[in-house]
Design a protein that fits this description.
Helix content of chain A is 57%, strand content 5%. With 442 residues, chain A is mostly helical. In chain A, strands 1-4 form a two-stranded antiparallel ribbon. Chain A is globular and about 70 Å long. Chain A starts with a helix and ends in a 7-residue tail after the last helix. Chain B has 386 residues and is of the alpha/beta class. Chain B has 10 helices and 11 strands. In chain B, 31% of the residues lie in helices and 13% in strands. Chain B has helices spanning 3-19, 57-62, 87-94, 113-122, 135-142, 185-196, 202-217, 237-251, 277-296, 366-374; strands at residues 35-41, 51-52, 74-75, 81-82, 98-105, 153-156, 171-173, 257-262, 303-309, 329-334, 364-365. The two termini of chain B are 40 Å apart. The chains are: A mainly alpha (442), B alpha/beta (386). Chains A and B meet through α13, α14, α22 and α23 of A and α4, β7, α6 and α7 of B.
């Protein structure tokens, strides 16, 4: 028997899924992009690094605005989004629904929708730099969709925190993240109590989210931070608290589970009786710390240039310090650096290869299961990296079996991927072009 | 018979007999007919839940809800017992093929998964030693020869494991059964032109390696592989992987080193006792490795299987009925040395025996344990550590 809710969901789902299909269809009917070979110049390199891959359309946008203005607009992320993208995203429940409502849907479908959204945005958004940073921060604050109910929470977390602050303030993002129910559940802080502290979240908060492994903290600091964070958890009921409704799935501080004794964390004295302020005070200290700036500078430089560069990292660090963690200001100097413009090419990771191929070929896609299957076989199904450090960035990790890449570009060019369409007058030529060693690099 | 297999027979059989004692016996022709299979349990598997120290009351005091009653354990002696899920290993222990070493770890003190895994996979004291390549990669480089085929080292994983970082030509696959290209001949031909005749970039090398492996694996028919009777693999990731390892070993296509990995060992919450998350993870390992050893038949004697993990867990259970990161865990080696024995030093879990955080001390360095087990058949192994 089908319940009323199921019926409604089914009806709603059908209607909006139709909408998503229409958007794919609209894209499909667009004329094929004029063929133009990617030039080997500064503009092509900058586009390849700021975006998910060079395309004729992107090159035109760059040319009409000029380099400086193009980069500033990407940093502001104020380009209008294409209507088709908006329609396609609106058809996805994982974006529109509250996590606990999403739980009515099968897990697998929700994960599929999350992956569709990631592919669609990375491929079609005009605010490409923002999308690249969303990918960066989503991995920096990685949670595994397959653990507990992660998949139901990830979409919400990405909308409310990662997308909101991707080019905003790092401290704001990290502080919001420390109260993100999805993160607290993923790293077991739900079970962190005075009687028995659980170190998992405290450890990764210092090691992966803020200071980095070289940040100079000790095992004792981890244990003390865990004490500060006792009682930080997810509300598992919808409940009235002093005349306001605290929804199931929101952040909750459980005073009875909190260790209210004095603590000493990473050079900071936390006096007794602070309650929720203990954790807030330490997180605030960590997100501003110079070691955090250093760690982020190293990661951002590596993400955009593929390597290390002390001078550039120092510049990013000084921006971190002077702007108190404004991501836009930290990223700006990297984008026109000679490390990015003149440095060696970077091997595209599978997600990047897929998006770059779709972009350069002007493909229409729903980003659906058929395409996701290719991504999975290449080893990068989005939101399914089980460990908290996110998918690796270094190239060696991905210089593995090339068959899934070749199969993907062949299938794409020959129209063998259901719900993904390209206009290829010469499919063999397109397949060969996308399979070249050159195209594997950005 | 291919040139390679002729050489292998020679190396294993004829040469030592003919030239025993002469200078020629020092000449290495290809690699010994030996396979190494390394299974890495990512996340830090709780060693105290694998080899349970039931003979010490401290164990039951520290694990009031996680502790496993003696009656449910597979007793190894009057102090240690195997977790009930590891029951299939008891027979290999009894037949003298399994050696168990407790309290194994690295010098890493961060208790970070990533640092501890890096230490062990790079073959270094800590993850921060600056070593750029993996321990297996250095072994493969040191013993490289012209006879090496494209399948000498194969990993079953999504990304390159750090132990193979920098290896001459590692192959990383999700599955050998799916290792095929469904395109047309013209496309394949152009791939060969693009990847085999131009350039020497990272991508070129990966492409060349892939094409070479493709040619080899065509000779294998993994879909129709029939394990020996009595060997039943699970259809999980590890079971599928080990089944393919067995097929490759038996096919003599030149595979020497296989790396596999499983996740789900980071049991901070609801670890379980004789049943639960950790128990079912252990059961997958035990049943699949048992099937693998059975399936290998006579090849088993020439196959060393290592099961390792980056660290163990805190002795004291936490409030979530789980355990936090510790420093030492168990290493299990099949067909190494000292089979049928519990090896190494046991530092104890008493209050005065544990480290300052309350963890079992990693008194048995993982590098020493590996050297001991592998050097009889991989003599260069003692030189790979940094």
């Amino acid at each position: 028997m089908i319940s009323r809710r199921d019926a409604l969901l089914a009806a709603g789902g059908l209607a909006v899924a139709g909408c998503g299909r229409l958007a794919t269809e609209a894209r499909r009917r667009k004329p094929a992009p004029e063929f133009r070979a990617k030039p080997k110049d500064r503009s092509a390199r900058i586009i390849d690094r700021l975006t998910f891959g060079w395309s004729v359309e992107e090159a035109d946008r760059f040319a009409s605005l000029g380099e400086q203005e193009y980069i500033e607009r990407q940093l502001k992320a104020d380009f209008d989004e294409p209507l088709e993208l908006t329609l396609q995203l609106q058809s996805l429940d994982c974006i529109r629904m509250h996590p606990f409502e999403l739980m009515e849907l099968p897990r697998g479908r929700v994960t599929q929708q999350l992956q569709s959204a990631a592919i669609l945005r990375a491929t079609y958004s005009h605010n490409q730099l923002k999308e690249r940073l969303v990918d960066f921060w989503s991995n920096h604050f990685n949670i595994y969709a397959g653990k507990v109910d992660g998949t139901f929470f990830k979409g919400n977390e990405e909308e409310q925190i990662i997308r909101k602050f991707a080019l905003g303030n790092f401290g704001d993002m990290a502080k919001a993240m420390s109260k993100s129910p999805a993160m607290l559940v993923y790293l077991d802080n739900n079970r962190n109590s005075k009687a028995h502290p659980n170190e998992n979240y405290a450890r990764e908060l210092m090691e992966l989210h803020t200071l980095g492994i070289d940040g100079g903290y000790t095992q004792k600091d981890i244990q003390e931070l865990a004490r500060c964070l006792t009682g930080w958890m997810m509300e598992d009921r919808s409940i009235w608290v002093s005349k306001t409704l605290r929804a199931r799935g929101s952040f909750r501080f459980d005073k009875s589970a909190h260790d209210d004794g004095p603590k000493h964390v990473f050079g900071l004295d936390v006096p007794a009786g602070g309650g929720i302020k203990d954790g807030e005070m330490v997180v605030d200290h960590l997100v501003r710390h110079k070691e955090t700036g250093k760690y982020l500078a190293t990661k951002l430089v590596k993400f955009f240039t593929g390597g290390q560069n002390q001078e550039l990292e120092a510049e990013v660090l000084s921006q971190f310090v002077s702007s108190q963690g404004e991501i836009l200001k930290m990223v700006r100097p990297i984008l026109t650096s000679s490390a990015l413009v003149d440095g060696p090419p970077i091997m595209r990771r599978p997600f990047e290869l897929i998006c770059a191929s779709l972009r350069v070929s002007g493909a229409a896609t729903d980003g659906g299961p058929a395409l996701q299957g290719h991504l999975r076989r290449m080893g990068q199904p989005m939101y399914e990296w089980p460990l908290p450090d996110g998918y690796p960035v270094d190239q060696l990790s991905w210089a593995t079996n090339m068959l899934p890449r070749w199969q993907f570009v062949y299938d794409l060019a020959h129209g063998k991927i259901p719900n993904t369409f390209v206009k290829a007058p010469n499919a063999d030529l397109m397949a060969r072009q996308l399979a070249t060693p050159d195209f594997q690099y950005a | 018979m291919s040139r390679r297999s002729a050489l292998k027979v020679g190396a294993a059989g004829l040469i030592p007999w003919l030239f025993s004692g002469s200078a020629l016996s020092q000449v290495k022709l290809g690699h010994q007919d030996h396979n190494l299979v390394v299974i890495f349990l990512r996340g830090g598997s709780d060693g105290l839940n694998m080899m349970v120290p039931f003979g010490d009351d401290e164990y039951y005091k520290a694990r009031p809800s996680l502790g496993i009653p003696v009656a449910k354990l597979e007793k190894l002696n009057d102090y240690f017992g195997l977790h009930p899920s590891l029951k299939p290993f008891k027979k290999w222990y009894d037949t003298g093929e399994l050696c168990l070493t407790p309290a194994v770890g690295s010098k890493d003190r961060t208790r970070s998964h990533f640092e501890a895994m890096l230490a062990m996979e790079l073959g270094a004291a800590t993850g921060h030693s600056g070593t750029p390549s993996g321990w297996l990669a250095r072994y493969l480089s040191m013993t490289q020869s012209e006879q090496d085929g494209p399948l000498r080292s194969v990993a079953w994983a999504d990304t390159m494991p750090d132990s193979l970082r920098g290896a001459p030509s590692p192959l990383v696959v999700q599955s050998v059964t799916d290792f095929s290209l469904k395109t047309d001949d013209a496309f394949l031909k152009s791939l060969k032109t693009m990847y085999k005749t131009e350039g020497d970039s990272l991508v070129h090398r990966a492409g060349q390696q892939t094409l070479d492996a493709l040619k080899k694996i065509e000779q294998l028919d993994p879909k129709n592989y029939k394990p020996l009777s009595g060997a039943t693999y699970a259809t999980d990731y590890l079971g599928n992987g080990l089944r393919e390892v067995a097929a490759l070993i038996k096919s003599s296509l030149g595979m020497e080193i296989a790396c596999l990995e499983t996740t789900g060992w980071d049991t901070h919450v609801a670890q379980g006792s004789d049943t639960g998350i950790h128990a079912s993870n252990l059961a997958s390992v035990a049943n699949n490795v048992d099937a693998f050893l059975t399936d290998l038949g006579e090849k088993r004697k020439n196959t060393t299987v290592v099961i390792m993990t980056e660290f163990g867990r805190r002795i004291q259970q936490n409030a979530g009925l789980g355990t936090d990161h510790g420093r030492a865990s168990v290493m299990m080696v099949f067909n190494g040395v000292n089979g049928g024995k519990i090896d190494g030093i046991w530092p104890g879990i008493g209050k005065d025996q544990v480290d300052e955080v309350g963890d079992l001390k990693p008194v048995n360095d993982y590098r020493d344990v590996l050297t001991q087990h592998l050097s009889p058949r991989m003599p260069e192994i003692s030189k790979v550590w940094s």
